[in-house]
Amino acid sequence: MIETPVEADTGLRDPTNLSVVQHSPTSIWNGALIRQLVRFGVVGAINTFVDLAVLNLLILATKTGRAGTMYALFKTIAFACAVFNSYLMNRSWTFARVAEKAPVLEGLQFFFISILGAVVNVGSSWYVATYTYPSWGIDPKWWPSVAALVGTAFSLGFNFVGYKFWVFSDGKER
Question: What is the pTM of this model?
C-alpha cells in the first residue's frame, strides 16, 4: 500500500487538505476515476442534447442539411456549441482545475483536443449521413441524428483521455 494525499483519491486538488489515505497502487478504478467517468458521461449526455438540438434546429429552419456539405456545416456549428458547453462544465465540475496552469493555456489545450475530437466526430457522422442508408426501420428524417450519435460515440473516448491527462492534468497522473 502507498500513502498519498486525499486529492489523489478524490480527484480534487485542495492544497489545504493534507490528509493521507491508503490505497493499492494497482487500483486504477479508484473512486475519483469512476466519479470523473460518471460526470464526464453526464456532461456528454448534456452536450449530445445541445449538439442534436442545434443540428436539428438548423435543419428545420433551413429545410436543408440532411446530408452532404450543408450537413457537415450544420454539424460543425452544433459541435462547436456543444464544445463550449463541455469546456464550461468539465472545467468546473468533472475535472479539478489545476491552479498552476494558466487559464489561457488550459483553454487552448481544450480547444486543441476538441478540434481533434471534432475531426473524428464530424468526419464519422458525415460519412454515416452521406454514405449509408437508414436501416433497422429508422425513418430517413432521423438519420442525421443517428449519424450524429455515431460521431459522438467515436469521439467520446478520445476526448476523455485528452482532457483528463493533458488539459486538466498537473502532469502527475500520467
Answer: 0.66
